[in-house]
Amino acid sequence: MLMVFAVGVVALIWDYNSAYRKNVEEITRKTYGKGKKTEELRVEGKDRVLGEIPIEVTEQVYGEQEISQVLKQAVKKIDSLILGENISLDHVDRDLNLLTEIPGKPIDVTWKLDRYDVINIYGKLKEDKLVSEGTPVKLTAILTYREDVEKQVLYECMAMVYPRMTGSDGALLEKVRRTVAEKDQDTRESGTLTLPKQVDGQEIHFYTVMNWRGAVIMATAVVISVLFFALDKQNEIKEKQARQKQMCLDYPEVISKLTLLLGAGMTVRKAWRKIVNDYDSRIKQQEKRAVYEEMKYTCRQMDGGVPEAECYEKFGRRCGTKEYMRFGALLSQNLRKGTKGLNDLLRLEAIQSFEERKARARRLGEEAGTKLLLPMFLMLAEVLVIVVVPAFFTVQM
């Protein structure tokens, strides 16, 4: 009891000295978030006591530099604050904690998302909208100092949102992923990441996933090869058609020259060689013509000892059109039976070939007119737009 009494006396003396001997010049504020405090102080004048009054002291607020520093620290801290139960923003399969204020700091947070269809403004995932491949979501936050709304800072990040795994295997796989992610965070200073041998009491093995890049490249190569083969075939068909078309156009000219030379008294072989020599002399001034090249080849065959009649027949088959096959057969037959009447037959063939060329020219002209129908319809549509649109706007006015 005596000891307690002594302590009380000492406290009383201390309080007396503090209240009546110490002049209070400043009061320590509470830091932000601790609230205001009230101090009971006695006020004295020059020679008398004026009385006691409560002094209310508000909590401390930040200065300009401190506000900037606090906002920067909040931006660095917000990455970990919004994760919730997730390990990182690279794999989000649980609700995010999109807080509206920074704990212990006078900072309000306003969020904006670019994909409200998979996550709402509160960070809740919409499971029915998520896909297993993951959905990238851009998160944008504006951090505002509560005492001065003009003091703001922008925060942006990307989150890959995945559906939560279900079932026993899915739950175990999720635990494996989370365990590996936690181990990665704990061993970031190490050059390697050691994968766990067991998770949740079960033995775990990791294997490299099969890369199908080689198979894709092989399939692409096969497809490209097939396309090139088809392109070569198509070009070959086009070249063959162009060659036949050119030969059909040259047929009346060849028949006319041969008829003229035979009428001048030449044999078929000499007339044939004369036509080839004239073609060789003009080859530098004009492009190659398929029918004359085939005639040159026929000359070389005859010079090589192949029978003349057989050469003419092979010439017709190489040309591949009914006109030249008929022409080769006519020369071969008349060579065996004699050249009597050959000139008249060739003259009739020349007349018929010219008529066929005229018919072919008319047919090509009709085809060209048909091909021009589409451009004509397009031009008609343009004219209608030019005429109708101004008239329509005039009626509206």
TrEMBL record:
Chain segments annotated as transmembrane: 212-231, 372-393
Keyword Transmembrane: yes
Keyword Membrane: yes
Record's keyword terms, sorted: Membrane, Transmembrane, Transmembrane helix
Record's protein name: Type II secretion system protein GspF domain-containing protein
